[in-house]
Amino acid sequence: MTEESNYRTDVTPIWCPGCGGFSLLSSLTKTVLPNLGIPNHRTLVVSGIGCSSRIPGYVDTYGFNSLHGRAVVIAQGAKLANPDLTVLAIGGDGDFFSIGAGHLPHAVRRNVNITCVMVNNFVYALTKGQTSPTTPYLQRGEGPFLSLKYYPPVDPILDMVSYSVSTRASFIAQGIATDPSHLAWLLEEAIKHKGFSFVSVLAPCVTFNPPGLFKTIRERATYLKEGEPVELPASWTEQPWLHDSSNITLALKLAQSPVAEKPHIGIIFRGRSA
Amino acid sequence: MVVLGNLLQRLAASIGYSGQMPRYYGPQIRGGASAVKLSLDTGQASVPADTADIMICFNWEKYIELEQELPLGKDSVLFYEDAPPKEGIVLPEKSFQVGFSEISKELIGKASSKNMVALGLLERILALPESLSRGTEIEDEASALLGKNRPALDAGRRLLLESAFSELRLSPPQNPSPKVVLDGNSAVARGAIRVGCRAFFGYPITPASEIMEEMQERLSQGDGVFLQAEDEIAAIGMALGASLTGAKSMTATTGPGIDLMTEMIGLASSVEVPVVIVDVQRGGPATGIPSKLEQSDINHAIYGGHGDAPRVVLAAYDLEGCYRLLIESFNISEYYQTPVILLSDQRLGQTTVATGRSMLEADYAIVERKRPGGEHREQYRRYEKTDDYISPMASAGDEGTIYQLTGLAHNEKGRPSFDFANNQRMHEKRCQKLAPLRDRDDLVKVFGKEQARKGIVTFGSSAEFVLETIESLGLQDEIKVCIPELIHPLSRRLSGFVNSLEELLVVEMSYSAQLHHYLRSQIDLPTNTASYARAGGLAFSRKELSGPITKLAG
């Protein structure tokens, strides 16, 4: 097995202590890349702009910290021109769901064999705390999700699970930064999947998330296990079903549960490999 | 009508005639006004005359839409189908009403062969051998029509007209070897294949789409990558991604697409990744006039984007240039590791030209990007300082040369760096590495007598109109012409040309005179400098340019 140090550059991350980015970085460099045994030079990490997009500088593979929202297009171009490369597109919720959202459905339908990792910290952090398309929607003054500093969002969120299931991505998973070993397993499965794979990483922003947001997410999060009953939001009356990640209809049902009410952690849908 | 022109041009080219055939069309999706103007030359392909010797009109209503671009001359021989509207059209003396549709209906029950009847008529008037259209190999839908429509062609040939039109018989071509027929967009695509472009990403847009369509066809036959992207941002982004792995990569678009690509062009300049962007300019701003020419993207090509992001801008002015300069664009982009924008325009891109095969068969040097050798493997520094400011570039996938790129200001290793001195050095690197291009004299064309003290600077498709107007006025000895193919960085040969003048005229199709202002920003122009600049939508004519050129001569 290759050592973790072989996959880390000597660059110190700019992230705040406790940032979800560290969890993704250690999963990748300590577990995923060594386990898969992919040589450093055969790997390309493309990112956009944002906190999580600084990651290529920290991973000792080919890397490109590119433009806001455009990681997924650069990644596709590179993979098409050199199919021997393992290509990851990494970015935040602003990257993939706001400025670059127009590229995602096309990446999905082309099913180019790349892995897209969206680090969802529910906020624009690099620009100091503005609302993102995934910042939970609540009335001002309501609930645990409200930042003390900023006005709350007035629009509903774009939900990663419902979005990617509805566009029929061929591999959809959601991990959580507080469980890096499970996240590592998800990433390995995603990279091994032949086709477009989309992994959401629920991550805390220790600086700009309102107090309690990530704590609530973590408390409500439950793991999806093949053949076992799924947990549903408390408000639902429907009977839980047995999780079957190969069943798109069940994935569409899972996608109805809002991430803030019931974050599902695990492989949500895995279609046939291309 | 386009099919008629296309077939006549190809038939004539097959026995050695050259010529140009610009296309005229409006905003219709299908079935609207369309026309072509075709020159048949015994020697070099020339810009068609302002007014035609022979005009065929099937539909006056549609003709009126395009009349500005296709004026009737009083000496034109006109064949028309329906009686012209009572007002607005003055028929020339030699006008003949011919029932093209009627003849077609008699033969096949519908009017769809009327263009074949007209082709037969033209074949006879021009004295093209009858065997020509009989012996044509079927290459595509248009040539297949020749075989299927023999009776219509023959009927056209047999039309009884009151004049023999012997003055319109073509003289034999100077060189009877068959000519190749292609347009600027096709020349760009063929140049790309010739230079080894392996990856094309595009998005449909008039008048550049044909480049994408031809690249799709050509790349799908080899090991190339072709993809029609979701927008122009994705198209150039994918090209950058492909280039990162070592593939020669390009995209093609026009004004609005260049707008969208601007941020990526800045990124490519900053991270020094080669990419070629072809801009087939059209009327702007905004949606403008998509189907007509203009030359108003110079500012954007040179300066578009925030920050200082050096890039190279080339401009073709004829068909051969579309081919050769596309090869040159890749050579420069790969060698200097910088984005190169090749400017073409609607006129160049969509005018089919019958010309000698030599441009396709000539030898062209092919330049590859500098790659790291063994000595770099120990401690590879992507942006290593070198004497010529060009650092060897590893491809993603190469062993031993891993690096990370970033659009952030970066140091020699490619690591983010906000150190001022480093930032200054990196700006200098990206700018100074292009300096040798200023001595590329071969990318500046000069015509006329060196001792002339009056001169014109023009570029792109306007250049051929300028040259032909000077020739038709017999002013070759008094006025010299400089056509820069390298627009940016500005070449020394162009400055030298301007410095040799007492009087300068800058001719371009841009309302704000972008070329003139660019030159003024770079060179001390003569006190006697005039600008002839106007908005696009209508090609220049010899008649129009005679004014400013005569004034310069006077």
What order do the helices and strands of chain A follow? HEEHEHHEEEHEHEHEHE
CATH architecture of the largest domain in chain B: 3-Layer(aba) Sandwich
Q: Which sheet architecture does the biggest sheet of chain A show?
A: 8 strands, mixed
**CATH class designation of the largest domain in chain B:** Alpha Beta
Largest sheet of chain B: 7 strands, mixed
**Uncertain residue segments of chain A:** none
Number of strands of chain B: 21
* Percent helix of chain A: 25-40%
How many structural domains are formed by the residues of chain B? 4
Note the beta-strand portion of chain A: 15-25%
Order of the strands making up the biggest sheet of chain A? 2-1-3-4-8-7-10-9
Bulk shape of chain A: globular
Instruction: Please compute the radius of gyration of chain B using only Cα atoms.
Output: 26 Å
Tally the beta strands of chain A.
10
Structural class of chain B: alpha/beta
Strand line-up across the major sheet of chain B:
9-8-10-11-13-12-19
Report on the structure:
- The complex is a heterodimer of chains A (274) and B (554).
- Chain A is α/β, with parallel strands linked by helices.
- Chain A has one domain: Rossmann fold (3-Layer(aba) Sandwich).
- Chain A is built from eight helices and ten strands.
- Chain A has an eight-stranded mixed β-sheet with strand order 2-1-3-4-8-7-10-9, with helices on both faces. A two-stranded antiparallel sheet of chain A has the order 5-6.
- In chain A, strand 9, helix 8 and strand 10 form a beta-alpha-beta unit.
- The longest helix of chain A has 17 residues.
- Chain B is an alpha/beta fold.
- Chain B folds into four domains: 174 residues, Pyruvate-ferredoxin oxidoreductase, PFOR, domain III (Pyruvate-ferredoxin Oxidoreductase, domain 3), CATH 3.40.920; 180 residues, Thiamin diphosphate (ThDP)-binding fold, Pyr/PP domains (Rossmann fold, 3-Layer(aba) Sandwich); 64 residues, no CATH class; 113 residues, Rossmann fold (3-Layer(aba) Sandwich).
- Chain B has 20 helices and 21 strands.
- In chain B, helix 3 crosses helix 7, helix 8 runs parallel beside helix 9 and helix 8 packs parallel to helix 13.
- The two termini of chain B are 42 Å apart.
- The mean pLDDT of chain B is 95.
- The interface between A and B is large, with 37 and 42 residues.
